[in-house]
Inverse folding.
C-alpha cells in the first residue's frame, strides 16, 4: 500500500481549514458540484429570473444528494453546503437553509406520525418556514397567528387575526413551484392559549395558491433576490396530523396538552430549535463569502500594477503596506473565523442534552462574531478592488449585501448577543489560561500564549464592569439597570468571541505538522491577537497587564509581523481552495483581466 506523499504548505493549510480527515466528506463534493457550468454567473437577468434559477439550482443540488433526510440531520455536511454555495449564489444558500434545515429539519425533529416526506425529499414540493410576523420579529414569542383546535373535526383552523400578524418575509410566491410550509402559530384550545407550535400547511399547487392563503411579494431587499412575501391565512382548515408534536407537547383527541417542559416559552424554544443549526449554516455561508472576497482581492492586488518610485517603473499594488496590511488583517480574521466555526461545530455535534443552553449560546455568540467580521472583510476587499469591485461580474460587489441577510437571519446579531450577554454577566467563568504570574514587563508581544491571556483579561475586565453596573443600577427599574450594564456586557461578549477564536487558532497551529505552514499560522494568529488587543491597551496598561514599553512598541511589532506575512499572501488565499472554474470566470482574479474589458468594449 502506497502512502500519500508530504503535503505542500498550501495543502497543509487547506487540510487544517477544511476539517482535516473529514474534508472529503464535508467539502469536496459540494466544491466540485458548485464549480460546474450550471452554477456559473448569469448576467443581465431580471430579479424574478434570478430567483427561478436559484430554485432550479436547489433542485440540482438535491438530485446529487443520496438521502436528503440524512443531510438534514448532518449539521457538518449541511453547513458545508452553505459554505460553498454562499459565494456562488446567495439565493441558493438562503433556499437551501430554509428547505433542508428549517422545514425538513422541523418535520423530522417532530416525526410522531411517520410522515411521508417523499414530496419534499424529491422536491416535488419546496418547503418553507413561516415564523416571524410583520409586527413580531425579534419578539417572535409574542406572535399572533392562531391555530384553533376544532373539536368538530379534530383538526385546526389556522387564521391571521389582524394585518400585523401576517407572516413576514417567507419565500411563499409561486416562483419555484408548489410549496408547503411549517407555520408557527399559537395553539388555542377552547380559547385557552397553550403556547406556540408548528403546523404543516400546504400553500400552493401548480394552479396557484390554495383557498384561504393570501400572498403578496415584497419589494426586493439587499443582496441576491429571493421571493420574500407577506403571507396570511383566512380560517384555513388543517387535519389533526398537521400539528408537529414531540415530548415538548402532545395534544390528545380531547384537546388535552401534555408536555415534558414546564412553560409555554420553553415549549416554543424547543419547537423552533432548528434555528440553532441555522445559525451554524448562516455563519458558514458568510465564511465562504469572506474567503472568496479575499481571494479575489488578493489576486487582483498582485495583478494590478501602478506607478513605482522610479520614472517608468510599474509595481504591483500589493507592494504597498497601506494595501496589503489591510488585506492581511482580513486574512487573519478569516482564518480565525474558520477555525472558530470548526471548533463550535465540534462542540455542537457532540454536546449532551444537559449542555443544550450553553451550546446554543456558544453558537449564537459565534454567529454574531463571524457574520459581522465577514461583512467587514467583504467590504474591505471590495474597496481594495476599487472601481473594478463595483461590477457584479467580478463576483464581489453582491457579497456585503448577501452577508447582511446572514447578520439578520436566524436571530438578529445584536439581539442574540444581548441575550448571551445577560446570561454571561454572572453565569460565565472567564477562562484565563495558565497560571503565569510573571510581572507584565517580562511578557513578550510575540508570545502567543501571553497575547491570548491578555485577551482573556480583557474579557474579565468587561465582565467585572458589567457586574458592577448591574449591581449599582437603579433599583426597581429592570430596564434601567440593564441599560447601565449592557454596554460593558456586550464588550465582554465580543472579547469572549475573540478569545474563543484565538483558542481555536492556536489549536490549529499546534496540530499543523508542516513547519512552514505552522509558522505561517502562528504569525497569522499573532497578527489576529495583536489587532484584537490594540483597542484595549489603555485598560491593560491601567491594570498593569502591559507596560508603557509594550504599548509604545505594539505598532512596530504589528508591522514586523506584516513584513513576514506579506510575501505569503497568495499561499494564504490559495489555501481557501476556491475552484479554478469559479476563479476563471472572475475577470480581476486573473492576470489578463484588462483584456476582458477591452474585448467587452469591442463587442
Amino acid at each position: 500500500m502506497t502512502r500519500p506523499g508530504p503535503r505542500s504548505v498550501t495543502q497543509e493549510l487547506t487540510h487544517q481549514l477544511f476539517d482535516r480527515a473529514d474534508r472529503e466528506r464535508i467539502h469536496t463534493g459540494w466544491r466540485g458540484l458548485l464549480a460546474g457550468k450550471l452554477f456559473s454567473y448569469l448576467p443581465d437577468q431580471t430579479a424574478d429570473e434570478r430567483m427561478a434559477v436559484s430554485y432550479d439550482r436547489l433542485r440540482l443540488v438535491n438530485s446529487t444528494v443520496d438521502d436528503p433526510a440524512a443531510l438534514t440531520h448532518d449539521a457538518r455536511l449541511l453547513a458545508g453546503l452553505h459554505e460553498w454555495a454562499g459565494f456562488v449564489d446567495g439565493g441558493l444558500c438562503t433556499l437551501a437553509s430554509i428547505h433542508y434545515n428549517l422545514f425538513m429539519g422541523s418535520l423530522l425533529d417532530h416525526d410522531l406520525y411517520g410522515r411521508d416526506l417523499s414530496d419534499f425529499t424529491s422536491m416535488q414540493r419546496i418547503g418553507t418556514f413561516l415564523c416571524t410576523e410583520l409586527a413580531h420579529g425579534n419578539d417572535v414569542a409574542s406572535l399572533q397567528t392562531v391555530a384553533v383546535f376544532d373539536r368538530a373535526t379534530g383538526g385546526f383552523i389556522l387564521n391571521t387575526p389582524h394585518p400585523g400578524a401576517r407572516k413576514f418575509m417567507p419565500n411563499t410566491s409561486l416562483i419555484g413551484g408548489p410549496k408547503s410550509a411549517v407555520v408557527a402559530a399559537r395553539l388555542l384550545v377552547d380559547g385557552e392559549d397553550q403556547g406556540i407550535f408548528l403546523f404543516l400547511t400546504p400553500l400552493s399547487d401548480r394552479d396557484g395558491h390554495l383557498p384561504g392563503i393570501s400572498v403578496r411579494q415584497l419589494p426586493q431587499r439587499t443582496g441576491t433576490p429571493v421571493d420574500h412575501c407577506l403571507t396570511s391565512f383566512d380560517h384555513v382548515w388543517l387535519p389533526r396530523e398537521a400539528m408537529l408534536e414531540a415530548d415538548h407537547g402532545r395534544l390528545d383527541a380531547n384537546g388535552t396538552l401534555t408536555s415534558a417542559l414546564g412553560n409555554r416559552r420553553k415549549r416554543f424554544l424547543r419547537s423552533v430549535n432548528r434555528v440553532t443549526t441555522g445559525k451554524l449554516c448562516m455563519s458558514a455561508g458568510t465564511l465562504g463569502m469572506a474567503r472568496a472576497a479575499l481571494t479575489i482581492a488578493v489576486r487582483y492586488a498582485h495583478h494590478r500594477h501602478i506607478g513605482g518610485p522610479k520614472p517608468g517603473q510599474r509595481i504591483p499594488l500589493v507592494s504597498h503596506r497601506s494595501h496589503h496590511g489591510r488585506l492581511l488583517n482580513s486574512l487573519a480574521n478569516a482564518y480565525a473565523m474558520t477555525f472558530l466555526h470548526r471548533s463550535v461545530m465540534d462542540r455542537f455535534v457532540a454536546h449532551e442534552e444537559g449542555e443544550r443552553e450553553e451550546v446554543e449560546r456558544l453558537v449564537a455568540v459565534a454567529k454574531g462574531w463571524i457574520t459581522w467580521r465577514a461583512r467587514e472583510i467583504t467590504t474591505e476587499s471590495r474597496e481594495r478592488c476599487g472601481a473594478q469591485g463595483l461590477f457584479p461580474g467580478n463576483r464581489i460587489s453582491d457579497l456585503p449585501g448577501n452577508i447582511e441577510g446572514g447578520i439578520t437571519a436566524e436571530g438578529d446579531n445584536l439581539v442574540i448577543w444581548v441575550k448571551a450577554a445577560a446570561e454571561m454577566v454572572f453565569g460565565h467563568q472567564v477562562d484565563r489560561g495558565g497560571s503565569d504570574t510573571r510581572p507584565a514587563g517580562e511578557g513578550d508581544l510575540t508570545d502567543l500564549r501571553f497575547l491570548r491571556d491578555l485577551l482573556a483579561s480583557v474579557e474579565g475586565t468587561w465582565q467585572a464592569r458589567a457586574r458592577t453596573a448591574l449591581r449599582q443600577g437603579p433599583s426597581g427599574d429592570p430596564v434601567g439597570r440593564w441599560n447601565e450594564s449592557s454596554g460593558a456586557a456586550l464588550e465582554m461578549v465580543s472579547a469572549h468571541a475573540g478569545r474563543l477564536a484565538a483558542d481555536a487558532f492556536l489549536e490549529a497551529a499546534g496540530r499543523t505538522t508542516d513547519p512552514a505552514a505552522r509558522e505561517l499560522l502562528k504569525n497569522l494568529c499573532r497578527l489576529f491577537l495583536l489587532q484584537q488587543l490594540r483597542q484595549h491597551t489603555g485598560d491593560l496598561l491601567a491594570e498593569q497587564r502591559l507596560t508603557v514599553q509594550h504599548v509604545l512598541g505594539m505598532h512596530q511589532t504589528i508591522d514586523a509581523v506584516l513584513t513576514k506575512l506579506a510575501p505569503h499572501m497568495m499561499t494564504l488565499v490559495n489555501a481557501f481552495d476556491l475552484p479554478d472554474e469559479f476563479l476563471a470566470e472572475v475577470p480581476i482574479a486573473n492576470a489578463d483581466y484588462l483584456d476582458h474589458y477591452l474585448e467587452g468594449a469591442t463587442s
